[in-house]
Amino acid sequence: MKKTTQTPEVNLRTGKRKATRRPIAVLVVEQPTAEQLAPSDDDLAAEALYQEAQVLAAGAPVVAISNIVEIPSIAAHPVSAPERQAFRSEALDLILSAAVPASTKTYSPLSHIDLITSVKEQLDKRGLTIKDERYQENRKGQQMFGHLTVAGYNGEQDMCLGFRNSYDKSMQVGVVGGSRVIVCSNMMFAGDFKALAMHNGNLVQEMNTMLGKAADRLEEHYRKLQLDSEKMKQVEVNPRIIHEILGELFYSESVVSEAQLRIIRGELREQTNFGDGSLWDIYNHTTEALKTTPSGLIIGRHIDAHQFYMQRA
After folding, report:
1. Residue 52 confidence (pLDDT) above 50
2. Do 136 and 145 touch, CB atoms closer than 8 A?
3. CA proximity to 201, closest of 111, 101, 105
């Protein structure tokens, strides 16, 4: 767009000043949208390769996954409206209506609803009552993340079991134990993330075995996270330390995005739930921002953030 301004000049005949109009260029800068700031498909693919490299480095076997197959237009597991309402989550409209891909010689898909149902069954077998359940989706339900909350043993945090799945082969089905801070619903996930390749064989039995082990160790993970949170509460931080932490989280570790940095800055200004100047405060501001992480990356980013903060505790 252009603006004009008045510049005085002299009329040679009359000797009077006259005004001429000269254009001035004005640069208009548009702010990036949330979609532009979100990780691209290339980012998600790179993250999946990074996680696979970590598994290889640890010496665990990795089952190769074939190229993405065309997804049929009709869902294999239609879910009725009453069933959908029972899950109490708007995100499930996309998660449960997404079409399950066809099986191939090298790939056996696991439906989102089968995973969710199995997680609930494993918790029920151990007498653990679900207090709350929440879900996130990405790529129109092709990727999903969920976490079921079980009442904890103190008034600050509850036990939590997180799990993920995909139909586009961007990530393996996985589960991890953790906790959720009651006052703000922020999640805490530490190590021991269990993943299962979606290959031929008795996939359902392997999944139930994995989920059962995670449920058995849920209280163990919860107790550890309680100790971790108490350690962070004992570490004082000041503005200089906070700036160092955020710089490393963004530039060095790539745990948070530019948009999430702005969320953390807003949390630091508001200090709604946390504000006693401890490492625990900035940790919770970070996990608050991580709620906006795409479902395919959210577990890994929480684990990376937790490891980062515990190195400073």
Report:
1. no
2. yes
3. 105
- Classify 208 in phi/psi space as left (phi over 0), alpha (psi -120 to 50) or beta: alpha
Helix (H, G, I), strand (E, B) or coil at 44: helix
Domain residue ranges in the chain:
34-310
Tell me: the pLDDT tens digits for 276-312? Answer: 789 999 999 999 999 999 888 899 999 999 999 999 9
Listed as own residue / partner, the contacts of 37-44 with beta carbons closer than 8 Å and 24 or more positions apart are: 37/257, 37/258, 37/259, 38/257, 38/259, 38/294, 39/257, 39/294, 39/297, 44/170, 44/294, 44/296, 44/297
Cα angle: 257, vertex 181, 285; to 5 degrees: 30
Beta strands in 139-288 (DSSP E): 143-150, 157-166, 173-181, 187-189, 194-196
| Beta carbons within 8 Å of 195's beta carbon, 6+ residues apart | 51, 55, 172, 173, 174
- Residue 115: which residues within 8 A CB-CB, separation 6 or more? 163, 165, 173, 207
Per the listing, tokens 């290339």 go with 42
Predicted TM-score (pTM) of this structure? 0.68
Tally helices (H) and strands (E) across the chain. 11, 8
The amino acid at residue 175 is V
